[in-house]
Each structure stands twice: as structure tokens, then as C-alpha cells.
# Entry
Amino acid sequence: MIKYVSTKGGVAPVAFDDAVLSGFAADGGLFVPDSIPTLSSEQLQQWSGLSFPDLAFELMSLFIDRSIIPAADLKKLIDDSYSAFECADVVDLVPLGGDDRLVIMELFHGPTLSFKDVAMGFLINVLDYLLEKRGERLSIVLATTGDTGPAAAWASVGKKTIDCWPLFPRGMITGEQERQMTTLNAGNVHPVGVENCANGGDDLDFVVAKLFENRDLKEKLNLSSVNSINWCRVMVQSVHYFYGYYRTVESVGDEIVFSVPSGAFGNLFGGYLARSMGLPVKSFICANNVNQALHTVFSSGVFAKKTLVPTLSSAIDIVVPYNFWRYLYFASHCDSEKLNRWMREFQQHEALKLDPDTLRAVQEGYQSVSVSDPQTVQTIRDTFDHNRGYLLDPHTAVAVAAANLLKDALPDHINIVCLATAHPAKFPEIIHRCLGVDSALPQGATHPSLEQASKVCQHLRLCDLSTLESALPHAMEMQSRGY
# Structure
């Protein structure tokens, strides 16, 4: 049975249920499996025709012991997680007409129009399942830069075992994203708009991490998290890489490239996990915006914290990509002592220079690009003009722009799958700006669920970042008492 260990190495290995319910490890590290299962070429071939839910079942079964979630229960959890998706296949693949090599993998057909739904619904359902078995209740606190919060909030509605507290930097996400959290009118969902977040979601991540470091407070409030620090999130995000691979290549065994709009490195880590299991991925393109922490470390070996620059692709406006520590753990051959030393250095100097051996390991199978806002705008406009009005959201546009910049350096026979992480309807003002449309938006830039949310009252708490660390626990405690 796979056990889960902390990247910091300070706690004993735990079973899947304890890792998922805890979120962070008790020593502040991130949970990872003590081994990554590998698939034979025969297994890869046998699974090539599976539906998305059936493929998810096979892959998740490798990480979840039957004693924790029996097969029948796991299958039901997976089926329930994707029952509300608008696309029968959960995700859809769309070739771009201007280049036969480029394929868009639409991951935004879930209830909140974001790729976060692909993993979040399953994670919340698993938490609810495990908590109900234990007779326990959790308060989930998470920071969002636009899409994680809505996905967690929607998936949590009505769950008797969960209170969901999504924190968002007020004014730094779109009104559509905010309303997806604040118009649910669910008694167990408590969105908090936080003012004066100069570093956006990174400021919120810092406060959340401090809350989890306080063990007494964590136990008192029964805290957990569903950000991509939670192992279950990144584990499930490996599935769409397999599915996209099978629906793109001519023969199982062919190589492929994935271009991924990247912020906290959670989605890219899901890809790393898929490749480590045996998926034939030639390389990943790490597509950053100008907040290029990942591009900087891949290109120069310097992992540094810089001042946040607000961009059109706000969901990947990340200063410190916290899942990169998970990747560094594996790149260093699971050396917790080395990782702890790096983390201390980073905390002290807000920068870390990787040694040459580690940098070579980190760079293996990765390319990276930083894409500017003007490049993002031009990519949305060009794609719309040359592909019969097909619309990209600003994050997917970063991935497509990165693929266009690097494709000439790749062999001609290799397809590039660009991950479409959000529906363009979540960014109407940006679409207006890109297309120069003064009147009605194109049909592809609207969605009935967002139109409905724009017409109802909002329910939220407001707080200043300077008082969040004390104000949030107080609000959570008052909520638990029924106030």
C-alpha cells in the first residue's frame, strides 16, 4: 500500500485518508507518495479507449487503497464528481485550424467554467466521504486568484461535513469570478474578500500557511485546505494528461508536448506525475505571464520572489509557486534535508540559487516562456480571426502564445496540446479589449450561469489583509457557534 510522506521529512508516513484530510503535513511540508507507480506499455495500451471517468478510476486506484475507499464507492465518487459537466466526455479537444500541430484541450466544462472543477469536485466528494465515515467536520480555508475559490465553493454547497472559506484578493479577480462564490447562498460557504493584497493571492497563501503552522489553532478550528497543496488535487490533475494524450496521438507510444498556463505549478505537477507514471511526454511548456517565477528558475536556476505585476491572466499571477517545492523534492531524489535547507534559504533571502546538478534535473523535459499582456491580447485576437470566431480566455492564450513561440524548435511530427483552463465568459472586459467590440460580446464570451449570477444578491465577508490572521479565526469560531 502506498503511504504518504512529508516533503520536509518531519512526520511519520500516513495513509491516503490522513494525507487528504490534513492538507498540509504537521511539519508544514506537502504530502507526496512514498513511491510513484509506473505503468507498463500494455497498461497504457489497454486504457487508451477508456472514458474520462473510467480512466480516472484506474489511475486513482493506484493511489487509493481499497481498505480506505472500496472500488464501488470510488467509482460512485468519480461518477458523481463529473455528473454536472456540460461536456459528455468531461473535457473536449479542439484542433486549431491555423496549425495542424496545435490542439486545445478544453478543461472548462464543469459547473464553474474552470479546469479546477476537474479535480475539485472529486476532492470535495472524497473529503465528505471520509469525514462522514469518521463522524467529523472540517473547515476548509483556501486562497484563490480567481478559479479555485468558485470551484471549491460550488462543490461544497450543502455538504454537512464541510464549511468552506474561500479567500480572494478583492479587486484582483473578475466580477464574474467573485459572484460565482458570493451568490451561492449556501449556509456552509463563507467567501471572504480581502482588501489591500499587494501581492494578490500570495499574500493570502502566506496567511493561510501561518494558520496551519499554529497546531493548536488548526486542531481547534478543524482546518484543512483544498488548494493544490492537497495531494488529492494534484493527483487527479494527472488524469487529463492521460486523456488528452490518448485523444491526440495516432499510436500509443508516440511522444507529445503539453503547453500549460502556469501559476502555482499544481497543474504542471499533475503532468509531471503522469509522465513519471509512464506517459510518453517529450516535454512540458511552462507558460508564464510576466510574473515569471517559474520561467526564471527553469531558465537560470534562480528561484526568487519578486513584486507581483497584475496582468490580464490574473489566475496565474503568482509570486511564489508553492507546488514547485513538491517538484524540487522529487528533482532532488526525495532529499528532505536538502529541501529544508533550500526552504530556509528562500525564507531568509527570498531567493535560492540551485546547484548545477539540481538545475539539470529540474530542466529535464521542460521548456519555459514568459508571455506579456500585449502578446496575450494578440493571441486572442489572431485565434478569433483565423479560427471561425474561436475564443481563448487570457490564460489559455498564454499557453497558445508560448506554444507558438517554441514550436519551431520541436520536431514537426509532434503535436502540442494547449491546456484551456477557463471559459472566456469569465473575462468579458478582457475579451472586449482584445476584440475591440463596443457592443455585444460574441456568443462564445457569454454563459447562462454567469448571467444568472449577475442578477442576484451577493453574500460575503470583507476584511483587510492587515487583520486577516486574527479576524478569520474569529469569524470561523463565531460561525461554528451559530452566530
